[in-house]
């Protein structure tokens, strides 16, 4: 794992057997598994009480996942929880989401890890079968709202990590160490948890990591930007004031230029 910033690229190694891809996907080359975190399908409908169709973000994210899966010859797409924003969707929204998932199953096998937004039902009426976690290539794949077994390497979502750059602009960002990788949220509605904030490192406390253990890799639609170690980045930027935790407001993304 590099400890220094590197030029922007289409992909970048995060940890042993884990690669960061553009658009905020992670990839396990040996298992040929594409990892997707926090899509929150159906967000507009759930937040609009069933009156916010069409679900434009569902179609956009589905297309992005399918493109990444095909480009990397993925055999499996693993959702790391919060696949849907909530199970209380209108019939129209359920049809849109299940249709989108059907499209993805035509591209690769699909595995759903249940997150906190799936609720007690685990989203069964929409997603069908889900798992609490699964293992691929020696990594535990989990949502991240609960700590996995001690000593187990884990790849999680849940935290919506991002770099807040001022002016309402944020960039989805991976956080990666030898034993933990946090994949950014796919949903375009979450500005996310600022990786530079004290709240972010506090949220990672169950995994017993420090800023000096983690590298930061930001993502745009077509590139990833390795910023080096989180501790060095915080020191360089003089640790800005704490920012609010994850909120669902349409974010403005970092542009490649």
Structural class label: alpha/beta
Tell me the number of structural domains.
1
Report the biggest beta sheet as strand number plus sense, adding barrel if it closes. 10 strands, mixed
Q: Detail the poorly predicted runs.
A: 252-257
Mean pLDDT: 89
- The gross shape turns out to be globular
Topology of this structure?
Elements: E1 11-15, E2 18-21, E3 25-28, E4 33-36, H1 43-47, H2 56-71, E5 76-80, H3 91-105, E6 109-113, H4 124-127, E7 134-136, E8 139-141, E9 154-156, E10 161-164, E11 169-176, E12 180-182, E13 193-194, H5 198-203, E14 215-219, E15 224-229, H6 230-236, E16 252-253
Parallel strand pairs: 4-5, 5-6, 8-9, 9-12, 10-13, 11-16
Antiparallel strand pairs: 1-2, 2-3, 3-4, 7-8, 10-11, 11-12, 11-14, 14-15
Question: How would you describe this structure to a colleague?
Answer:
Strands 7, 8, 9, 10, 11, 12, 13, 14, 15 and 16 form a ten-stranded mixed sheet that branches. A six-stranded mixed sheet has the order 1-2-3-4-5-6, with helices on one face. It is globular and about 50 Å long. The protein is an alpha/beta fold. It has six helices and 16 strands. The model is unreliable at 252-257 (pLDDT under 50). The protein has helices at 43-47, 56-71, 91-105, 124-127, 198-203, 230-236, and strands at residues 11-15, 18-21, 25-28, 33-36, 76-80, 109-113, 134-136, 139-141, 154-156, 161-164, 169-176, 180-182, 193-194, 215-219, 224-229, 252-253. It has one domain. A hairpin with a 4-residue loop joins strand 3 (25-28) and strand 4 (33-36).
């Amino acid at each position: 794992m590099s400890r220094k910033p590197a030029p922007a690229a289409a992909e970048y190694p995060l940890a042993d057997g884990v690669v960061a891809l553009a658009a905020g996907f992670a990839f396990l080359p040996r298992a040929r598994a594409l990892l997707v975190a926090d899509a929150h399908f159906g967000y507009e409908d759930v937040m609009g009480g069933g009156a916010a169709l069409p679900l434009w973000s569902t179609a956009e994210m589905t297309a992005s996942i399918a493109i990444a899966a095909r480009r990397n010859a993925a055999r499996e797409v693993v959702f790391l929880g919060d696949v849907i924003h909530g199970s209380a969707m209108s019939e129209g929204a359920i049809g849109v989401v299940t249709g989108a998932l059907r499209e993805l199953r035509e591209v690769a096998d699909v595995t759903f890890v249940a997150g906190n937004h799936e609720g007690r039902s685990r989203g069964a009426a929409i997603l069908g079968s889900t798992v609490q976690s699964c293992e691929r290539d020696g990594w535990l794949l989990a949502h991240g709202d609960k700590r996995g077994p001690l000593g187990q390497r884990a790849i999680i979502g849940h935290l919506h990590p991002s770099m807040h750059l001022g002016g309402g602009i944020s960039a989805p960002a991976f956080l990666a160490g030898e034993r933990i990788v946090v994949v950014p949220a796919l949903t375009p509605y979450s500005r996310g948890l600022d990786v530079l904030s004290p709240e972010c490192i506090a949220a990672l406390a169950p995994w017993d990591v420090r800023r000096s253990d983690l590298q930061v890799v930001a993502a745009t639609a077509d590139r990833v930007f390795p910023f080096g170690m989180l501790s060095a980045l915080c020191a360089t930027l003089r640790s800005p004031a704490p920012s609010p935790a994850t909120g669902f407001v349409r974010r403005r993304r970092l542009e490649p230029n």
